[in-house]
Design brief:
Distance between the termini: 45 Å
Strand order of the largest sheet: 5-2-1-6-7-9-8
Strand content: 5-15%
Radius of gyration: 17 Å
Order of helices and strands: EHEEEEEHHEHHHEEHHHH
CATH superfamily: Class I glutamine amidotransferase (GATase) domain
Number of domains: 1
Largest sheet: 7 strands, mixed
Structural class: alpha/beta
Number of strands: 9
CATH architecture: 3-Layer(aba) Sandwich
CATH class: Alpha Beta
Shape: globular
CATH topology: Rossmann fold
Number of helices: 10
Length: about 240
């Protein structure tokens, strides 16, 4: 089950407004992989962090603590205000992920965490994805960061050459973590972790992707997210002006 190597440390840098499932789902995947990974949560301050669901979580370390070396830097997405103000354009957060990424074996994000990594220059020359309704905003960076965004709505992408990983929205964090476990420790370990958490999705409705949802529903959700999409558009334009 293990090869006697020390477990890889997976670090999730949190911020106020972070999406709960973006990091808790992946945390359970890594924690179920027979001791091959150790998960830590970090934040700018060691205090309760308010999630987008208005619940609170407590990080293991602050960015200035003596935390373990991070082997896998996993940046979660969140509410637009939190992502933009507390991570994309937050100097302490950006400095932390830039520093941690230098010596990490893998660096990546799930959902709109991709915009946070892009702001840090950590997605340059990578094939990436993000939350489905924000793909067009991420595409605005293609000519500036030389990122490549495939068609469709992948649950996760691992860019092995650049040692980067990105995922779709929210629940994709589980798939993405399983992909990493398989890439690093092999298929058996991913299968064991998947079984341990009994991850066998068979949702009662089949609208979890724009590819399978009725066009009318996709349109309605896009309309409901129009203000959020505008926030990300403005944030990307602000980012472009700094490149």
């Amino acid at each position: 089950m293990t090869d006697n190597k020390p477990p890889l440390v997976v670090g999730f840098p949190l911020y106020d407004g972070v999406t709960l499932m973006d990091f808790t789902g992946a945390t359970d995947v890594f924690n179920s992989a027979y001791g091959n990974f150790t998960v830590i949560w970090l934040a700018e301050e060691k205090r309760p962090i308010k999630t987008s669901a208005a619940t609170f979580v407590y990080p293991n370390y602050s960015f200035t603590d003596a935390y373990p070396h991070i082997d896998i830097l996993y940046v979660p997405g969140g509410h637009a205000d939190g992502v933009i103000n507390n991570a994309m354009f937050n100097e302490a957060y950006q400095n932390f992920i830039k520093t941690a990424a230098v010596n990490a074996q893998w660096t990546g994000s799930v959902c709109v965490g991709a915009f946070i990594l892009a702001a840090a220059g950590l997605l340059n020359n990578c094939t990436v994805t993000t939350y489905w309704s924000q793909l067009n905003n991420l595409r605005l960076l293609e000519g500036y960061c030389n990122i490549s965004i495939p068609e469709g709505y992948p649950r996760g992408i691992i860019d092995e050459q650049q040692k980067r990983f990105t995922g779709g929205g929210i629940s994709s964090s589980v798939d993405l973590a399983l992909m990493l476990v398989e890439k690093i420790n092999g298929k058996w370990m991913a299968e064991a972790s998947e079984l341990y958490i009994q991850y066998a999705p068979n949702p009662p409705v089949q609208t979890g992707s724009p590819a399978t949802a009725p066009p009318s529903l996709v349109k309605q959700v896009l309309i409901s997210q129009a203000a959020v999409t505008k926030l990300y558009y403005d944030a990307v334009q602000r980012l472009i002006n700094t490149i």
